[in-house]
Amino acid sequence: MASSNNGVSALFLFAVLLIAVSQQPQLATGINSSVYGACKTIAGGSGLIGVTFCIDALSSDNRSSNVGSYKEFAVIAVDLLTANATSTKSEIDGMLRNGGGGGAGATTRCLQSCQAVYGGILQGQAAVGAAVKGGRFQEAISSLEKSARAVKECQDGFGKSNVTSPLSVENDDAFQLAELIVLLIRDEP
Question: CA 45 to CA 165: how far, in whole Å?
Fold first, then answer.
């Protein structure tokens, strides 16, 4: 009888472990536990960015597999924001060269405004990267919050002009990346 109870107990324990593992599907599919832990901690209750966005963004860079601190994750996110801004500015340049994203005057004006926003972000990114690497977090936060506000204004400009934004995804990504960096460096011990 005792061996029967031990068998049931072992089976029960195995079932509990299976349930626990299934409650963390990101880890089961190969997400780096450091990325998952950092994202769950900083993005989980932020209301600014989603945990999934954080995981997807940081996991997109191979360097994240060897990271030991939030500051190192922030350096990666700075590079991701720089890449986003570079790509988005190039996309805007192309739209303006080809008639302003549909030819509507309002769309062209909004794109020109966004072109200036992304140009400004790019001008400041080297200083943001240096500030993060140098531990001058307040300096980096100030610049990043300015960038996040500017991207939000870029997106809002389309709505105010009653035209569809061709940059919704890019603007959302840039906003979330800027806020991700801020959250990472605010939580850096």
Answer: 28
| Largest interatomic CA distance in the chain | 83
> Is the distance from CB of 108 to CB of 98 less than 8 angstroms?
no
pLDDT grade for 103, boundaries at 50, 70 and 90? low
Per the CB < 8 A criterion, the answer to whether 111 and 158 are in contact is no
**What's CA 43's distance to the chain center, in Å?**
10
> Domain for residue 10, yes or no?
no
In a domain? residue 177: yes
We report the CATH number of the domain holding residue 130 as 1.20.140.40
Helix, strand, coil percentages (3-state) for the chain, rounded to 5, are: 80, 0, 20
Please name the residues in contact with 26: beta carbons below 8 A apart, sequence gap of 6 or more: 36, 55
Q: What is the pLDDT of residues 2-33, one digit of tens each?
A: 544 444 333 333 333 333 333 344 343 456 88
Parent domain of 128: 72-187
What average pLDDT score do residues 21-50 get? 72
Average pLDDT of the segment spanning 135-163: 96
DSSP state of 65: G
What average pLDDT does this structure show over 76-84? 98
Number of domains in the chain: 1
